[in-house]
Amino acid sequence: MTNIHSSGSTGASTAAGGLSDKGLRAGSIGLLGATVIGISCIAPAYTLTASLGPTVAAVGTQMPGIFLVGFIPMLLVALGYRELNNAMPDAGTSFTWATRAFGPWIGWMGGWGLIVATVVVLSNLAGVAVDFFYLMLAQLFGNPDLADLASNVVVNVLTCLVFMVAACYVSYRGMETTKAVQYVLVAFQLVVLVWFSVAALVHFGNGTSFDALGFSADWFNPFLAPSFSAFAAGVSLSIFIFWGWDVTLTMNEETKNPKTTPGRAATLTVGIIFALYILVAVAALMFSGVGTGELGLGNEDIQGNVFAALAGPVMGPFAILMSLAVLSSSAASLQSTFVGPARTMLAMGHYKAFPKRFAAISPRYKSPGFATLMAGIVAWVFYAVMRVLSTDVLTDTILTLGMMICFYYGVTAFACVWYFRAEAFTKARAFLLKFLAPLVGGVILAVIFATTLYDSMNPDYGSGSNIGGVGLVFILAMVLFIGGVVLMLLMRRADPAFFQGRTLRKGSSTDHA
């Protein structure tokens, strides 16, 4: 496969299937920078405070085991992503690769899945940033009433808009600015999370835990979950907590070695995050237990924001550092998460699957300017609507996000299997990395997707918000999917070139023309 980064090319087809350069700033990100941005996009501090409680609610002490199960398909799919990137380094990732493997229709929906997943999480990130911003002000000024401002819908939505504009601006300025901001924010949140974990374990050792729970190897056995539905819900949540590593692939046209650096950064990102999650999960269980007491992880009142409740008892006077860590984690991820949807929309505009305007590149910053702005606008509107409709925005959007992630990761995993089908059985390495790993990962994600979609129809699913007796999570998922199909059909009518295979052709790894 010819490298798509020919000098001076901004639109000519330079690789098999019609892949071509988008005009982004090539060579601006190395392995360290890509890994840092990958960790930032996952946002471990934000992710854990939002998911520890709901995961315990689903599977109890089996949380570490469920995290392990969620890690397995992520790793398997990451290996498939790496092979696709080695063959076709393109900013469109899931959209481009699924199109090359399965054709324009499935490819378009794969890209749509990535876009809506990131829009959902952008709104979620902004919401958590708002909560911790006012919590931090309350701690700084010793005025608990300031924390209550986050409950005011108007104040919440307007503050969210401020965060969204700031993050959008940094992302608009391109990868160099993004990278510089992320180094400090990522390092800070990692240090605070390790600090929290060690402090919780020290409390356990000293006998000062809230509800001490002795370590058990059974915690790592996911098959001890109460039911398969609970298992599926837990895995959907654990997939959410690992989501975001694929941002390293969407930067492939801007990395110093587009064929190898993005894949290595993705694998490194997933490994670091897995070790950190297991440490925090075990420490939280040993300190708090899974009961419904004041600081128990089973207490519904703290499940939506665990660190807000546990930081003080665990870290004492340094609790404000956790508020700062979650705030910086949310803000950093809010900014880095713009990278994925903006570059996917850029690629879809470039290949005429989206209106041409989305292919616009900022002349000054060499970033997908228009696509970045649109991602910010849509994410804020989505958050504002959800803030009014849902009694628990965080839980419902996380569960919806889990389904969207399963969908587009699964499509990409199967695209890897199909694209490399002709060479899958030629060598042991090709069989393992291009066929078996993505196939198993894709099947796991497909099962979790189907189970979660079915369960979400129950009006009691998630926060219990429903419309006409149907769970809000299911309705959200259907609106997003059906909306994608409608937009795809409208785009097909407006500009059929992409759907006729004239801008990006279906093919396989044996194609060389």
TrEMBL record:
Recorded GO CC terms: plasma membrane
UniProt KW keywords: Cell membrane, Membrane, Transmembrane, Transmembrane helix
UniProt xrefs under InterPro entries: AA/rel_permease1, APC_superfamily
Bilayer-spanning residue ranges: 29-46, 66-84, 105-137, 149-172, 184-204, 224-245, 265-287, 307-327, 367-386, 398-420, 432-454, 466-490
Entry superkingdom: Bacteria
Membrane topology: Multi-pass membrane protein
Location of the protein in the cell: Cell membrane
Pfam families, A to Z: AA_permease_2
Gene Ontology terms for molecular function: transmembrane transporter activity
Protein name listed in UniProt: APC family permease
Organism ancestry: Bacteria, Bacillati, Actinomycetota, Actinomycetes, Micrococcales
